[in-house]
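Hello Y.,

Per our agreement to keep a running log of every chain we model this quarter, I'm adding this entry. I've kept the format consistent with earlier entries: sequence first, then predicted structure.
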Amino acid sequence: MFARIKALLSENTSALSGEAAEDLGELEVAAAALLVEAALMDGNFDPVERGKIAQLLARRFEIAAERAEALIEAAEAQVRRTPQLYGFTRVVKDKFAYEDRVELIEMLWEVAYADGELHDFEASLMRRIAGLIYVSDRDSGAARKRALDRAEAEADTGTERGPKRETERGTETSSEKGS
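Predicted structure for the entry above:
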């Protein structure tokens, strides 16, 4: 029984052991997989979210757009192959410094807000990932605020759809906020 559990865990933790991980880097694929997972949480991986992920990966890893797109494709394949977050989060936790993990949480929030609204499943995923990569609630909340502020600023310039900000009465879009 223990052998089966160990085999199952090693299968999930080696989720990045394919050709894609070798060519692109285990850490890059793990981070991209978490970003793709965040985009898929609301059931719709739209071009805006895909573009946001490509932009974030290119900026974070200082890579060309083509390599960022290859990372997204590899990440999609990895996410479809294994529904477990543990393999991806373990790589991130082990290979990123704390500040880099906070930056990844901020990137995840940016993806969650990229389509203009935050789905409950996306917010739940952010909390789970933050816990799995040992980012404090305080730092995760600050990362969320920075991502939301950035998304609202981009919406004001017309480059992105505006996120809906939660209020006591429900939700209002960033454009309604000022009225």
